[in-house]
Specification:
The chain contains twelve helices and 13 strands. By secondary structure, it is α+β, with helices and mostly antiparallel strands. The chain has a six-stranded mixed barrel.
């Protein structure tokens, strides 16, 4: 069994370099543990389901030039034409789409006399969005055709317009507001009572300021007109999205040359755009981790090489006294293990300190305890790998070095 007393004695004679290496390992441990945790958080966030049939949903957003009379007939004509395109299973004109970035939000109440809303939610408008998005209806029913109204008629203030008083909500809203039993219950949106007639599987909001309300969404039976950011959403047969996207844009231009297609994209592009900053941040943090680990490894290699050069005569004496090459190799590996352990212990304290700062100022969750032993193992392995080359050179020092001068 290797005696560590000579190692500790040697380290005492090289306090400054040993302390610097310990601090480098500690800083690397603290930053890497928190950075890996943040990367894991970002990856989990980016993998969050939208609730729609992502593989088969495409969107085409038109912009009109000039006046557009008879808008209701225009929208009906466009939707009928889009539904006739081969590969299109359902089509709708929606005010927004999950992760689309542009969100129509408002507060809802369970009691109209209460000032503060019970929850802030997103309201999806459009024709039969359950089929167009590929949503899963868990309870209740879809809207009937006579329950729809046009948004521009509602906002015009006309007295003869019947405002829809039915709503479909997400399972998240049902659990949060009605404790899992929402059918037939009433909520108030814009001061109007809305009776819950259906519950769908959770649908993500287009824009998310509060992650705890990601699935706070509801669907209203409201026909959209072109403009105000409305976009044509189509759910295609599997494998037909490319052809449908191209044909849909061409069909809309054919129906009216004054339509300009602002954008057309697969839903994968919608998701990619929404999570672009998170993906960039995750990449940056991974780069920081890799850079820190490389710098730490180079520091261990450099210090190990320096100590081997300084101790050639000492190593030669040990070899002359009977130490084998394996003994010399284990000596340097044990020395590195001790330094790494001291750095890791200090790094764990720093890691928790950094995490507390992030929790206080950036509302991040607490660092899970299992990240620390995983970080320790990674740094121990890194240290052993980095010191191996200098240690192997040290083990090759011949006993004759003992007879040479300094």
């Amino acid at each position: 069994m290797l005696d560590i007393r000579p190692i500790l004695s040697t380290l005492k004679r090289h306090k400054v370099t040993a302390i610097l290496l310990v601090l480098e390992i500690a800083l690397t441990c603290a930053i890497v543990c928190n950075a890996v945790f943040l990367v894991r958080q970002r990856l989990d966030w980016m993998a969050m389901p939208s609730g729609i049939d992502e593989a088969n949903v495409v969107e085409v957003r038109p912009v009109n030039i000039g006046s557009t009379p008879a808008m209701h007939a225009r929208v009906d004509e466009a939707l009928n034409a889009l539904r006739q395109i081969p590969g299109v299973e359902h089509a709708a004109l929606a005010n927004e789409i999950p992760f689309g970035g542009e969100s129509w939000n408002d507060g809802i109440k369970l009691d109209p006399d209460v000032v503060a809303p019970a929850m802030h939610v997103t309201a999806f408008y459009g024709d039969n969005l359950i089929d167009a998005f590929g949503l899963q209806l868990l309870k209740g029913r879809n809207f009937a055709s006579d329950e729809y109204a046009w948004l521009d008629d509602i906002t015009s203030g006309r007295k003869d317009v019947v405002i829809p008083h039915v709503v479909i909500i997400t399972r998240f809203m049902e659990d949060r507001l009605f404790h899992g039993n929402a059918l037939g219950k009433t909520l108030y949106y814009g001061g109007e009572p809305m009776r819950v007639v259906g519950v769908v599987r959770d649908v993500a909001r287009p824009s998310i300021a509060d992650r705890s309300l990601t699935y706070g969404s509801m669907i209203l039976p409201v026909h959209m007109s072109e403009g105000l950011g409305a976009t044509y959403v189509m759910r295609t047969a599997p494998g037909q999205s490319d052809a449908v996207l191209k044909a849909a844009a061409a069909k809309l231009r054919e129906l009216d040359p004054n339509r300009v297609i602002q954008r057309k994209r697969h839903y994968s592009e919608v998701r990619a755009a929404f999570f672009a900053s998170d993906r960039a941040m995750a990449g940056l943090l991974v780069g920081v981790c890799i850079a820190l680990l490389i710098v730490t490894a180079l520091g261990i290699v450099g210090l190990g090489s320096f100590w081997v050069a300084q101790r050639r005569r000492q190593i030669g004496v040990r070899r002359a006294l009977g130490a084998t090459r394996s003994d010399v190799l284990r000596y340097f590996q044990t020395e590195n293990f001790l330094l790494a352990t001291m750095g890791i212990v200090l790094g764990m304290v720093l890691a928790y300190g950094i995490n507390i700062v992030l929790m206080v100022f950036y509302e991040l969750p607490r660092l899970p305890p299992h990240y620390l032993p995983l970080g320790a193992i990674a740094l121990w392995l890194l240290g052993q790998a980095a010191v191996y080359a200098p240690a192997r050179r040290a083990s090759c020092v011949p006993p004759v070095e003992a007879t040479r001068g300094n």
